[in-house]
């Protein structure tokens, strides 16, 4: 295996990720999560996340070098998430990346977090057939993308107009009395009847498809679940958690997979890549596999540890940019909490 040896640093949300790759080869992927510190708040608290990044950054960096069995001085370049994400969290990763690049006199590449989620597939399945479509679903984002060149040309076809898919899972879990983060718990609890309640499928009505064909909305669904549960409780009845979880999950996964397939049809993409924490969902995977099979679309799913936020995805995106001759970033780049996916390299 060959290619540039690249260090990648990710700190956009609650995971401090440091990855090391050589070209498309994964050498280390160390992640320190502050999720435990957010449990009692039922969501990520930005200030808590920033402080946790500060504490975890150096030890995580050291672990990554030990795992990859390299000396930091051997790296060819440093890649770092410049956005989108939580401002205070992003600046910790950027400061660390700049310090390493400056001290070792190596080029710095400030990159887009969403493009990283797409690029991570290079580590799993090799060169990316472009163009391809990508569905990114996590606690922070829900986006449908058309990828013409993962290093320079990504178009956002649509995104959520309110809550992210993972956020809806986390909020509904709270309503059902399940722990945070709710996604995996709802996934496990959803053993009941998915047709018990016909929860709303946001932005799928004919009139919505005109302007929002590839956009998502989960806030109406979240409210519908809460109202349904409240009505049961008011009447003194038990809440059938397995059925409500299954019905909610069906509504989310039905919309995500239908719109992803529609995007493949509309763009002619024959490959659909999925990423983000919600990509670990068993029903989403099953429904996508079923519908992709019917549409002759090939589904590419990275292993769960590469689906959630990590430094390897940033490292491999950096390596790909270096290999394709991208220019390094200036040392004075700033973090951009709402960096659009069309800006892959800052
Ligand atoms: O990518 P991620 O680790 O972090 C960011 O939000 O960026 O995603 C976390 C989200 C949480 O909302 C969590 O509830 C959701 O992914 N999640 C799941 C599953 N595993 C994690 N949602 C549904 N089903 C799952 N199995
Ligand atoms: Zn992410």
How would you describe what is shown here?
The protein is of the alpha/beta class and about 350 residues long. The protein has two domains: about 5-120 and about 310-325, ATPase, nucleotide binding domain (Nucleotidyltransferase, domain 5); about 130-305, Nucleotidyltransferase, domain 5 (2-Layer Sandwich), CATH 3.30.420.40. It has helices at about 35-40, 45-70, 85-105, 115-120, 120-125, 165-175, 180-190, 205-210, 220-235, 240-265, 280-295, 305, 310-325; strands at about 5-10, 15-20, 25-35, 75-85, 110, 130-135, 140-150, 155-160, 270-275, 300. It has a five-stranded mixed β-sheet with strand order 3-2-1-4-5, sandwiched between helices. The chain is globular and about 65 Å long. The mean pLDDT is about 95. Zinc ion binds near residues 113 and 140.
Described by the principal axes of the CA atoms, the overall outline is: globular
Please give the radius of gyration in angstroms.
20 Å
CATH class assignment of the largest domain: Alpha Beta
Calculate the terminal CA-CA distance, rounded to whole Å.
28 Å
* Number of helical elements: 13
The unique ligands bound to this protein are: 5'-O-[(R)-(carboxyoxy)(hydroxy)phosphoryl]adenosine, zinc ion
Task: Determine the oligomeric state from the structure.
Answer: single chain
Broad structural category: alpha/beta
Write down the domain tally: 2
Detail the poorly predicted runs. none
Spatial order of the strands in the main sheet?
3-2-1-4-5
CATH architectural designation of the largest domain: 2-Layer Sandwich
User: Using DSSP, what is the number of strands?
Assistant: 10
* Topology order in helix (H) and strand (E) letters: EEEHHEHEHHEEEHHHHHEHEHH
Query: What value does the average pLDDT take?
Result: 96
Strand content: 15-25%
In CATH, the homologous superfamily of the largest domain goes by the name ATPase, nucleotide binding domain
CATH topology of the largest domain: Nucleotidyltransferase, domain 5
Largest sheet: 5 strands, mixed
